[in-house]
Amino acid sequence: QNRENRYEEDNRVITDQTNIDRYGVIDYSMQAVGCTNLNEALRQAAFNMLTNLRETIMVSFKLPRLGLYLNQYDNFYIADRTCGWGDSGRFYRQDGNLLKTLTPVGSGQGFCTITYHTNEGLRSIQCEQLDPITFQVGSGELGVFIAEDTPFMLASEEAGSPKLFRLMSVKDEGKADAMLYTIDASEVLAEKYPLVDALNPETINLQF
Q1: With contact defined as beta carbons under 8 Å apart, do 3 and 37 qualify?
Q2: What's the mean pLDDT when you consider all of the chain?
Q3: pTM for the whole structure
Q4: Beta partners for residue 208, in sequence order
C-alpha cells in the first residue's frame, strides 16, 4: 500500500535484464506486506530477487549428538576444498608464532586467513603457510593463543573461502546406538543485506 497513492494497492514490476537474456522470463509475484512507500517495497522485491538468483545451494549431512551445537535457523560456515569453499583442520601445537596441524591443510604454502573459535566468538588471523602442516602467525597478530585440538577454517586465494549456510531442519534418525541427526541447510548470501540497504531505487530497471 503506497501512501503516495492514498494507501491503495500499488503494483510494480522489477526486471533483471542480464539474467532474462540468460535464462528467459521467469515470473514471480510477491506482496510487500507492511510496506507503506515505494522505496521500501522495491527493496523487498530486490531482496527476494537476489535470494532466488544467488542462494541456490542446499546441503544435507549427518552429525552425532555430541557434534550437534546448532539450533534451527542458525548460520554456520562449511569449509570444503573439493567445492572451492576453503579448507579445515585442527591445530595440535603452538610454538611461539608457529602453529602445527594434525594433518596437511591448504595448498602447503602461501598466505591465508585462519578462523577459529574463542570464548569471545570467532576470530580470524592472517598467517603464512610454510609447509602442509605449519603456519606462521602474521607479525600484526598480537596475543594469539590457540588451544590444543582447536578446529579451524582456512581461506586463501588457492583454496577459496568457507561458505555461509543457514540450518533449515534437524531430523533425529532414531538410532539409539549412534544417535545420528540429519542436518539440512541452505546457502546464505550475506552480501545481499548491505546491497539492499545501499540500493538506489531509481537505478532499478523498472517496468510499469
Answers
A1: yes
A2: 83
A3: 0.76
A4: none
